[in-house]
Design goal:
Blueprint lengths: L2 H10 L7 H11 L5 H8 L6 H14 L2 E4 L2 E4 L5 E8 L5 E5 L7 E3 L12 E8 L7 E9 L4 E11 L2 E6 L7 E5 L13 E12 L2 E12 L3 H11 L8 H8 L14 E2 L6 E4 L8 E8 L2 E9 L10 H9 L3 E2 L4 E2 L4 H7 L7 E11 L5 E12 L2 E4 H9 L3 H7 L2 H22 L9 E5 L5 E6 L4 H23 L6 E3 L5 H11 L17 H8 L5 H11 L4 E3 L23 H14 L6 H37 L6 E10 L2 E6 L5 E5 L8 E4 L4 E4 L5 E3 L3 E10 L4 E9 L19
Parallel strand pairs: 5-7, 10-12, 13-20, 14-21, 28-33
Antiparallel strand pairs: 1-2, 3-4, 3-6, 4-5, 6-7, 8-9, 8-11, 9-10, 11-12, 15-16, 16-19, 17-18, 19-20, 22-23, 24-25, 26-27, 26-32, 27-28, 29-30, 30-31, 32-33
Amino acid sequence: MTTKRKKKDAKKAPGTGIDAAAVARVFRESGKPLGEKDLLRQLGAPRAKMHDVLAALDELLEAGKIIRVRRGFGLVESMHLVTGTLEISRSGVGYVLPEDKRRKDIFIHPKDLGDAWHGDRVVAAVTRERKDKNHEGRIARVIEHGVVTLPCRVVKRMASDLYLCRPTDPRHTMSFMVDFLPKDGGRDPMADDVMQVHIGEKLEYKLYSGRGLELLGAQGDVSVQERLVKLNHDIPGPFPPKVLREAEALPEQPGEADFAGRKDLRALPFVTIDGAKARDFDDAVYVKKRGRAFTLFVAIADVSHYVPEGSALDKEALERGNSYYFPQSVEPMLPERISNGLCSLNPHVPRLAVVAEIDFTAKGVPGRTDFYPAVIESKARLTYSQVNRALFLGDEDERKNLGKILPLLETAEVLARAIHEVRAARGNLDFDLPEPEILFNLQGEAEDIRPKAHHFGHQLVEEFMVAANEAVARYLTEREAPVLYRVHPEPDPAKLEALFKLLATTDMATKLPVKPGAGDLSAVLRDASGSDVDFLVSRLALRTMMQASYSPKNDGHFGLASTCYCHFTSPIRRYADLVVHRSLKAVASGKGAPAKLASKLPKVAEHISRRERVAMEAEREILKRVTVLFLADKVGREFTGVIGSIADFGFWVELKEVMAEGMVRLSSLSDDYYQHNAERHELLGERTGRRFRLGQPVSVELSGVDLGRLAVDLTLIEGGEAPLAVPSVKRKGRRRRR
């Protein structure tokens, strides 16, 4: 802008409002930091307008657009400063996730965190730029703390009503001096109790005042652990009264008026197949044989019929994003009156559904599809274990119990296996890694953590759900309707290259393509299955995977080897499915999806993807907490296991006797100094040549657990390979990794 133009604008300024946008524009045009008087002069405003300038500055400071400097204020975007959210890992390092999505995350060393906490909105100064890695930085300013309350563990009583407390989340490293007065009839807090604390003022470095809001109970109680995990991750609790009123206003059962305009499929033998503890049944299936071909009917609860867009129920469901599952409780996306009642496809009662009807050839190739609203009536509520016993274990009693349902299941199995073969041929990834299942006694205490059973009873339902999801995505895409796709990017190129480079040094080398790429991963997993490198390949291949998310743009789903995929089959517990239902019903009825839907999808996709990550993090944390509680009385016991992950300070061991994981730190090994080879995923002794690698069996002793650190500490008893000839290892400094 020329000097003349600036003067012209300056003359206009007194007659115009001075707001944050105008002040930000002056900062950009000046190209340097400015003080209050500088701004007033460049705006051409009289001294009487200083109040407006100060108000605009406060607004820009609050938004993180500017930052205080020695003699005024500087524009963040012009000062190598980045505004974002700070995430701190349990190791203590931090990353600032920029609000500008074009920027990479910024690494923050623990010494550069200052007074910032995990979850804070901050301004970070970039101190070191790196081409292929994350830039490094330091926290320049905390805009606002991400939390105002925290669940904290009572360390000790300091005075009559004063307690020293520390957060239960190990990512928060500060302490609190907490005032707490028990409510009528309540007891005084004791050491290792957990209370919810409202954060007060800073007293000194990493010490703050606080006010106790509620005593949650003893930290050894699983229900208390669930409660504090929900608080740590901001998991929604009870529904607001307005939402509950809307739910209560709905009928207990659908009436004849609801059946108008729907196909009546109540005569068809639909069945639901779920886990034994499931209470919300949002999908039912029926398979009809047509000569050598099949027709698959997938009926999904018509939640959108009862939850109109923009209603209190809808807004709350969007805010939650999904249901949240814990070992002993659930925080549902919709009130139980809907999720477990009116919309649940319970047996022997009429229910409204959206049906995907798909023809398949004898070889499992999909053909004609049809989608329509219907009314169905499930004929049986089956469990995965029932189906497994009847179909795959040949249990005669179970087969008799199923009666007329058995032929339907046998037909369904044939189709499911055919569909599975088609997906396997196109490159579907199947890691088949065990998931933990926590078993509780009558007192609510964990008595075992074992691998969750997974068999073709589960696979049967999964094949049909994937087929329905793909069919809906293709249908909407072909009609250019807005779709909330489920996308999964190709693997991380650097990690994939490292995987193939490592496999080239194993017996798998002869089976690798000349130039292996992401498309070869499925074949590599199949070739490694059952071999000596099965564990190595499956774990490292899984670590190459990117995170799946929701997007209005169809980028395909790598893990399923699907070019077009969305979520349609679980509208009771996922908001994404509810969005897809609305679009599908509008298009199938000939009306076309509302134009405003497409404009809303980017924000909806970003929000529900974020809420899904929150649910996953909370699920992982509660599993770690229950694992630590379960192992607390087993310190000193010996276990066997395999090395599941390796770092420069030790290795993690996956235990066999119980589905848990612990760490052997190199500081506990006194026989040698060990070097970490990241490319080969191994630790090598400098003197002995003793080697620790992924998948290697070891014997360990449980030496301790720490609920505060969520740590399971192990001591090595036996394990590690020593070659016949000790190799010459170039030393990089004699020190034991800690």
